[in-house]
Amino acid sequence: MLTYPADRPCIGLQNSADGFVVSGKPESVARACGVLSDTVKDANGQTPEKLLWRLDVEVGFHPAMLPAVAQVAEWAAAYGLDVEQARGIAHNILMDPVDWVAECRRMAALGVRRILEIGSSGGVVMLTQAVLDGEGIEVLDVSGAEGKAALFGA
């Protein structure tokens, strides 16, 4: 498990070959983006204002989520569940950085032929398909009726 100071932003997710998500407290992320805007340009001379998008979400992948991990462990103990297993799962979901590119490539190496997006909005389909383009792997959003119909042939 990787650890970072809770008051500092970190790369919480790599979601494409050149796309990263900076996670952290809003003021920390804003400071990091300000530094990037002042100092970084891409190969075409574009500054981060053109390359940074603010995601209006509150997600994990950051040490600031440690209290939530502790809460899961408390709930597990209260209900007689395996506390360490619950803590480990919560830590993985809420705090551990994710390299989506590596995860997709690992699935391809395993011979996966179809990936099902079961989330509430199908938002990962485009990211996944972009990484796996040319691999012959179908990425299907089954979060809605249309995807379920495609999956089950209805």
UniProtKB/TrEMBL annotation:
SUPFAM superfamilies: FabD/lysophospholipase-like. InterPro entries: Ac_transferase_dom_sf (IPR001227), Acyl_Trfase/lysoPLipase (IPR016035). This is Uncharacterized protein. It comes from Dentiradicibacter hellwigii.
